[in-house]
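Handout, page 2. Input:
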Amino acid sequence: MNSEKILEIRDLHTSFFTDKGVVRAVNGVDLEIGPGQIVGLVGESGCGKSMTARSVMGLVRFPGKIESGSIRLNGKELTGLTEKELRSLCGDEVSMIFQEPMTSLNPVLRVGRQVQEAVLVHNQSISRKDARKQVIDMFERVGIPEPEQRYNCYPHELSGGLRQRVMIAMAMICRPRLLIADEPTTALDVTIETQILNLMQQLCRETQMSVLIITHNLGIVAEICDYVYVMYAGRIVEHAPVFELFDHPAHPYTRGLMASIPQIGRNPEYLHTIPGVVPNLLHLGEGCAFAGRCDCAVDRCSRELPEMVHVREDHASRCFIISDAEFS
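Output:
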C-alpha cells in the first residue's frame, strides 16, 4: 500500500451492548487507503462492513460504542472528536453514499434542495443562486439528464439509477478526500450498475479522491478496485491487491467466495455454497470464527485465533493452514 495514507484504521473495536450480551460487530480491524486508491471491503451480510464505515463517519449510535482503536483521516485522529467536530469533517474531508437512496433522501424535499443544503452548510459565504448552479453542474457531471428539471423533482419521481446519482452528487459536491460507498449499486440493473461504477472511476481519476467501496459482489471488486480487504464475523481475514487476491486466494473463506461465483462452462445445475451459517457474534469463542464452516480446519483452529500471516508481498491472510508451495 502507499506509504501516504488518506484513511488509516488500527485495531478498531466497535461493539453493541445488548440485554443478551456484547455483540462484537467490528473486532480488531486494520485497514488503510492511499491517495487516489479504490479499496474494496467485501464479505457476507452481517460481517461488519457497514459498521466499519459508520465508525469512520461517527454514526455509531446507542447501544453501540467504539470501544478502542484508532481511526486517522488525513493524519487526524477521529475517535476522540466531538459530534460537532466530526460533522465539520463530513462533506469536505469524507462523504458517504448510503446503501439505499430512497431511504437516505428526504421524500418531502426536492432532490436539488437536498444537495444544495450540503453546499450551503460547508460554504456559508456562497449565495443560494450560486449553490443552485453548483448543484445543477454536478447533476450534469454525474450523468443526470435534463439536470435543471431534475433539480425540482421529488425522490419518488426519479428512477433507482437517478436517485443513486443524486446521492453520488451529494457526496461529491464538496469534493471530499475520501468517499465511502456502501453497496452503491444495490437493487440496480446491470446496465445502471456499470454506468455508476464507470462514473465513480472517472471522478476518482479526475479529482484524486480515494474510495472505500463496501460490497458482497466480487464482480464489482474485480472491475474497479485496486486493493481488497475480506471481512468475516467482524475481523479482516485477508487483504491483497485485487489481481493478487483473485489469482492466489489464501484464506479458505476467500476461496469459498471465489468458488461461489457462477462461471461459464461450469455445471449450471450446481452452484457452490459455503456450508453452514455465519456464527452468532454474541458467542464467537476464542478460535477462528470460520472454523465451523471450513473444510481445512484442525483442532487448533477452534482454540486459537490465528494472526495475520504474510503470504506474498502486500498479501496477508489470517489462517493457520497456508501451503508454502502455493505461494512460492
